[in-house]
Amino acid sequence: MINMSSPIRVTVWSEYRHEKNNPKVTGIYPEGIHGAIAGFLGKQADITVRTATLDEPDHGLGGSVLDETDVLVWWGHMAHGEVSDEIVAKAKTRVLEGMGLIALHSSHKAKIFTSLMGTSGSLKWRMSTDKERLWNLMPSHPITQGIGEYFEIANEEMYGEPFGIPTPDELLFISWFTGGEVFRSGATWNRGSGRIFYFRPGHETLPTYHQAEVQTVITNAVRWAHTGVRTEADVCPKSEPLEPLPEA
Amino acid sequence: MINMSSPIRVTVWSEYRHEKNNPKVTGIYPEGIHGAIAGFLGKQADITVRTATLDEPDHGLGGSVLDETDVLVWWGHMAHGEVSDEIVAKAKTRVLEGMGLIALHSSHKAKIFTSLMGTSGSLKWRMSTDKERLWNLMPSHPITQGIGEYFEIANEEMYGEPFGIPTPDELLFISWFTGGEVFRSGATWNRGSGRIFYFRPGHETLPTYHQAEVQTVITNAVRWAHTGVRTEADVCPKSEPLEPLPEA
Amino acid sequence: MINMSSPIRVTVWSEYRHEKNNPKVTGIYPEGIHGAIAGFLGKQADITVRTATLDEPDHGLGGSVLDETDVLVWWGHMAHGEVSDEIVAKAKTRVLEGMGLIALHSSHKAKIFTSLMGTSGSLKWRMSTDKERLWNLMPSHPITQGIGEYFEIANEEMYGEPFGIPTPDELLFISWFTGGEVFRSGATWNRGSGRIFYFRPGHETLPTYHQAEVQTVITNAVRWAHTGVRTEADVCPKSEPLEPLPEA
Amino acid sequence: MINMSSPIRVTVWSEYRHEKNNPKVTGIYPEGIHGAIAGFLGKQADITVRTATLDEPDHGLGGSVLDETDVLVWWGHMAHGEVSDEIVAKAKTRVLEGMGLIALHSSHKAKIFTSLMGTSGSLKWRMSTDKERLWNLMPSHPITQGIGEYFEIANEEMYGEPFGIPTPDELLFISWFTGGEVFRSGATWNRGSGRIFYFRPGHETLPTYHQAEVQTVITNAVRWAHTGVRTEADVCPKSEPLEPLPEA
Known about the structure:
Four copies of one chain form a homotetramer. The first copy, chain A, has 248 residues and is α/β, with parallel strands linked by helices. Chain A is built from six helices and eleven strands. Chain A has a nine-stranded mixed beta sheet. In chain A, strands 5-8 form a two-stranded antiparallel ribbon. In chain A, helix 4 (85-97) links the parallel strand 3 and strand 4. The model of chain A has no long low-confidence stretch (mean pLDDT 96). Chains A and B meet through helix 5, strand 5 and strand 10 of A and helix 5, strand 5 and strand 10 of B.
C-alpha cells in the first residue's frame, strides 16, 4: 500500500469525435469535452490535470499514464466499440487498485463502466426539449456540497429508468424530466479499492459542462474518488495457517 | 416478459477435468462434480436437470440450452481460461434477462462470475487439514432453511478474506477456518433481472457435495434463484415523451 | 424456527379517523381504508384477512393478534402520536421475528416504520392536482409482477425527496410528479427476520386504493413479505466454545 | 447547512460504573474507559476532546454539549436502561443532522445504537480465554489505514453471529475467535446526514483500548465520521410546485 501525496492527478478522457465532426459541438466545446472539463478542474489548487483522447496512440492511456492517474474522468458515446479491450482491462485493474473513476453521461455504455458494473448500462433516451431537474438525496455527501435541494439544466437529453446498473452503494441524485421520466442520475459504487461515480448530464450538443453546478459536482467527485491508496488488484495468495492445524 | 411454468429447468455445468485426470477425484465423483450435483437436484419433484461440461461442443451450452435454462449451476477451477468468451457473453446476457446463477467454490475466478461482479474474485487459499464452520447470518432467508445456527465441513480447502467482490446484497454465511481465517462463504447479488448466489464449499478432492447441508443449501438456492421472469437484457430504447414538451 | 402453513394471515390496520370525520373520505372509503384493502386482499385464495383500527382496545392488536399475523399492513396519518409505545414495541418485535410489514403512504411517519428504519421519515409534500407516475425499476421483482414499465395515478398527493430513510435494500419504484418532484415510492428493507415494504400512494381523499395497479402491488407485496419463518427476535445467548480454548 | 471548521470536536461518553465498582477494571482504566479513549484521541492535533458519563447531570450531554459535538464516541454495558430516553432522542436527532457516532463493544445494546439501527443488536457472547483476530476486508477504507491484513487481540470477550443489525453499508472487519465463532466486528451505516461506525473490541476487564491498532481504528473512525455538515433532521415541508399544475 502506498500513500500518495497531493495534488490529485486527474486524467480527463474523451472520444473527441463529435467535436471534430459536428460544427455545433465544436462551437460549444472548441477544446473538446475533455478540454472543457480539464479547464475547470485545472483551476483547483489541489488538482493537476492531463487529457487523453481516443485517437491518440493507446487512446492516450499508454505508458505510465494510468499508473500516474489518481482519478480518471471518462466521456464516450459514439465509439465505445473502438476502445481497445487491452486498455480497458488496464484501466479496470487500476480502478480495483484504488484509482477513482468518474463516468459521465453516455459513458453508461462505455466498456470501462459496464465491465466494472457487470450489467448492461441500458436506459431509455430522447434528445428533445426536456428540462432536467436533479434532486439532491444526500445533502451531507461530499459530492453534493455546494448544491442545494436541487438544480436544473434548462435543456438536456432525457435518460429514463430502468437503468441497467447494480444497486448503487449511494444514490445521490434522481432526475425529473419534463417529458415524464425519472432517472438515477448520480450514484456511487466501490469496486476493489476504487471508488466510482456515475453522473448523468452532458449531451455533446448542449453546453452542460459550462454550467456551474455541473462543474461543482464533478470537482467534488474528483476529490471524493481520490482514495490516496494503492493496493494490488488481484493476488490470490497461498496462505500459511496462523493457528495450529490437525495432523493430516 | 414471459412467465414460465414449473418445473425449474437447471443446467449443472462443470469443467470435468480433475475427475478424468486425478484418480482421487474420480473416486469421490465418478459421475463428475456436475453428475453429483445433478444427482441430488434431480430427486426434487419441482426440478429437472441437465448437465454440461467444458469439453463438449460449445461447452454443452450451445443451441437452445441457455434459453431453456432457468438456473445455471457453475463449477470451474483449472481451466477458466478455456471457456470461450462468446459462451460467457451469452450466459451473462441470460443472467441479466432473469436466469439464476449459482457459482460454486473455485468459480470465484470463473469468467461468468467475475464479469457479473466487475471485480477480481481474489482471495487467500490453502489446501490443508482445516475444518470449515459456516455460520448462518440470515436464518429467515429461503437459502438457509433447514440449516441451523451453523454447519461444519470436517475438512475443506481454506478461502480467506479479503474476497474481491462488491458488497453483497445479502450476506448469508461467514466461514471460520481452523487455521485462523474467515470468509464470506454465501452471498447474493442481483444483476439485471437475474439472481446470483456464490457458495464457497466444494474442493474437488473432498466429498463436500455429498454432504447433506451442502446439498440443502444448493437446492434451496436453485429455488431462490428461479425468478420465473424473462426480460430483455439490453434495449436502450428511444422513448417518446409522456407529457407535453416545450417548443424547440 | 417454525414453518407456518398457508394461507397467509394478514392484518390490515388503519387509523379510521378521516373516514369518520370527513364526508369526502367516507364517500370514497365507506368501510374505512382498512376495509377497502382487506376487501381486495380477502378475495385471494391464499390470503385470510382481519382488520384492526386505532380506537379499538389495544388498537385491535392485543391478545394473540400479532402472534397470528404473518403480514401487517399499516395506514396511519393524523394520529401517529396516539398509537401506544407498548403496542409499537410488540409489533416491532414481531417484525424482527419474521412478520412482514407493508407501510403505506403517510405511514412514513408511523412509529412502527420510523422505529424500524432508525431515521426521521421526513419528506416534502403537497396536496394539489399533481399526477403521479410510478416507474418500475425492477421488472423481475415479485412485487412488480403484473405492472409494466410504469403506471399512473391521475391525482395524488405529492411526496418529494429527500426522503428520510436508510438506503433501501431494493428500490422498486420512483415517482414522477407533475409539479416537478421525484420520490422513492416503493422500497424494501430486511430487519431481523422480517421483510418491510414501503409503498407511497394512498391519500385519504382520493380513491387510490380502488385502482387496479395499486391493489396488484399491495397483493404482491403481501406474498413477498410472508417469509413463513419465525425466529426469536432478541436472545443474546451466552455461548459455549466449539473449539478448545487455552487455559486461563 | 453549516460548514464547521476544524478541529473535530469529540465527546467520549462512557457509563463509568465498572471502573468504580470493579478493582480489576479500575486498575486497567484508572481514568475510566472514557478517559483512556479521550487520552489517545486528545493527542491528535486535529481533534479536541471532552468526556461525559452516565452519572453526571443529563449524563453529561445536556446544554449545548451535543450541539458542539461533531463526533460522539459511546461505551455502555451494564446500565443501558438508565440512559434517559430524552437524551437518547436528542443524540439521535444530532446524528440525523450530521454528528458522527462511534459505538463501541457492548454498545451493541445501547439505546442510541439500536434506535438508529431499528434492530435488536442481539449476538452470542462468552467471556473466556479467546483470542480475537480482526480481518481487514477493505484495505482502502479511511478507517483501516495503518492496519495491515489483520490484527490480533490476545484475549477478548467473544461476540458471535448472528448479529442483529441491518446489512451494513460497508463491512470493514470480520473477527475470528479461538472458540470457533465469527463476527462482523467493524461496520458502517449512514442515517440521515450522520455516519455511524460500530467497532466490536473493548471488554472492560481487558486492556483493549490501550492497544495500538484499536487506537488507530478509533482515531481513523473519528476523522471518517466527521462530515463537517449540519442539516435539519426532520422538516417535512409543505412544498410549492416547480412546474405548472392542471386546474383543480
